[in-house]
Amino acid sequence: MSARVGSISDNALGGWYSYRASKAAVNQITKSFDIYLRNRSGEKAIAIALHPGTVKTGLSKEFWASTKEEKLFSAEFAAERLVEVVKGVGVEGRGRCWDWEGKEILP
């Protein structure tokens, strides 16, 4: 599971050093693992990273008040959206990070 804050090109605010670095690492591991899968399995297996958005869990509680209501997702909604993204990405989307709307998050 990744997050938009792992994108270096999308970082306009700074801060969150450890969290940003960990999510950037998730994206790098995803890319590297996908290369491994491609070499071993061709198109039979792919790796992608997913960003579920802000999900209303204990982890995000301190951000609930500052997140627009339409951008604060239930766990069920986030899971449903991510399943749809996985179904739609296909081999063309391998090794990349995708958000809950099916939009690529650039590195």
Q: What would the principal axes of the Cα set say about the shape?
A: globular
**How are the strands ordered across the major sheet?**
1-4-5
- Major sheet details: 3 strands, mixed
- What does the average pLDDT come to? 96
Report the end-to-end length measured between terminal Cα atoms. Answer: 15 Å
Low-confidence stretches: none
Helix run count: 2
- The secondary-structure element order is HEEEHEE
What is the β-strand count? 5
Q: What does the secondary structure layout of this molecule look like, with pairings?
A:
Elements: H1 17-41, E1 49-51, E2 54-55, E3 72-73, H2 75-89, E4 97-99, E5 104-105
Parallel strand pairs: 1-4, 2-3
Antiparallel strand pairs: 4-5
Short note summarizing the structure:
This protein has helices at 17-41, 75-89, and strands at 49-51, 54-55, 72-73, 97-99, 104-105. The chain is of the alpha/beta class and 107 residues long.
Q: Could you describe the 3D structure shown?
A:
It is a single chain. With 107 residues, this protein is of the alpha/beta class. Helices cover 37% and strands 11% of the residues. The strands form 2 sheets. A 3-stranded mixed β-sheet has the order 1-4-5, with helices on both faces. Strands 2-3 form a two-stranded parallel sheet. β4 (97-99) and β5 form a beta hairpin. The longest helix has 25 residues, at 17-41. The chain is globular and about 45 Å long.
Task: List descriptors.
two-stranded parallel ribbon; globular; 107 residues; alpha/beta
